[in-house]
Amino acid sequence: MHPMLNIAVRAARKAGDFIAKSVETPDNIEIMQKSSNDFVTNIDKAAEHIIIDVIKKSYPDHNIVSEEAGVIKGKDKDYQWIIDPLDGTNNFVRNFPHFCVSIALRIKDRTEVACVYDPIRNELFTAQRGSGAQLNSKRIRVAQTKDLTGTLLATGFPFKAKQHSSGFLNVLTALFVDCADFRRTGSAALDLCYVAADRVDGFFELGLKPWDMAAGELIAREAGALCTDFAGGTNYMQTGNIVAGSPKVLKGILGKIREHGNEAMKK
Ligand code: IPD
Ligand code: CA
Ligand code: CA
């Protein structure tokens, strides 16, 4: 295993196990509102602290971008860790057991290693660029679906950007004609890993942040998925709009977005 993936896994497991343990003492969870419909807890912050501590011990000069702590500058500009200490906070605060820790390392602006850890199911998704993707050390692959017929698609509602509700729902309606069903799990990082593990056939969401996607995106691609922005380009880390799936599923989703999405959904 790449030594930096090893560190990512160590950090993700330590933070994930802390998060899972904290569920047992709900009275100690403090919930704060960041913005409309957007929450953070003391557990997100403590988990983030654990992760940063593990990374800094091994790589004190690396840069870090983490959801709650922001940018932590290091001397070595080429290395950037992208962290979501708790993806699925809304699930976590409701004791809805579906959330994860997401850690990616980008070297010279290219994601090299990624790990997503679901501490409730003890599922560890990992990937190293060029070496495939694994779930608990077993290789995972995306199935080559013919088209949207019979597919199970994951998505996220734009609950922090409700001005996009009607454009989003138009796309959903158009997709629902062809696909079998949808899942809205509440963790974008796990949605991308579920594409990788062939648990869903495709995923799309708008308005995500780099830490929601960075690790899951490499895991999905290393399992054979394609990832694009809503225009079919590669700017999803900038636009926050991502589609993932096998080539045929991706094409089907992009076609519906092009036809039924609003202007904000064209990039
Ligand atoms: C959220 C989850 C959710 C997605 C949101 C994200 P958070 O991340 O990934 O599935 O729909 O857009 O913000 O806030 O729980 O880390
Ligand atoms: Ca997130
Ligand atoms: Ca988060």
Question: Mind explaining what this structure looks like?
Answer:
The protein has 267 residues and is of the alpha+beta class. The chain is built from eight helices and 15 strands. The chain has two domains: 3-140, Fructose-1,6-Bisphosphatase, Chain A, domain 1 (2-Layer Sandwich); 152-265, 3-Layer(aba) Sandwich (D-Maltodextrin-Binding Protein, domain 2). Helix content is 36%, strand content 28%. The protein has an eight-stranded mixed sheet with strand order 4-3-5-6-7-8-9-10, with helices on both faces. A five-stranded mixed sheet has the order 12-11-13-15-14, with helices on both faces. Helix 1 (3-22) runs antiparallel to helix 2. The protein is globular and about 50 Å long. The structure holds D-MYO-inositol-1-phosphate (IPD) and calcium ion (2 copies). Residues 44, 67, 84, 86-87, 89 line the site of one calcium ion. One calcium ion binds at residues 44, 67, 84, 86-87, 89.
List keywords for this structure.
5-stranded mixed beta sheet; Fructose-1,6-Bisphosphatase, Chain A, domain 1; binds calcium ion; 15 strands; 28% strand; 2 domains; 267 residues; 8 helices; alpha+beta; globular; D-Maltodextrin-Binding Protein, domain 2; 8-stranded mixed beta sheet; binds D-MYO-inositol-1-phosphate
In short:
Helices cover 36% and strands 28% of the residues. It contains eight helices and 15 strands. The model has no long low-confidence stretch (mean pLDDT 96).
Tally of separate domains:
2
Beta-strand percentage range: 25-35%
Q: Cofactors and ligands present?
A: D-MYO-inositol-1-phosphate, calcium ion
Helix count from the secondary structure assignment? 8
Give me the Rg, rounded.
Answer: 18 Å
Shape: globular
Residue stretches low in confidence (pLDDT < 50, at least 5 long) are none
Could you estimate the helical fraction of the residues in percent? 25-40%
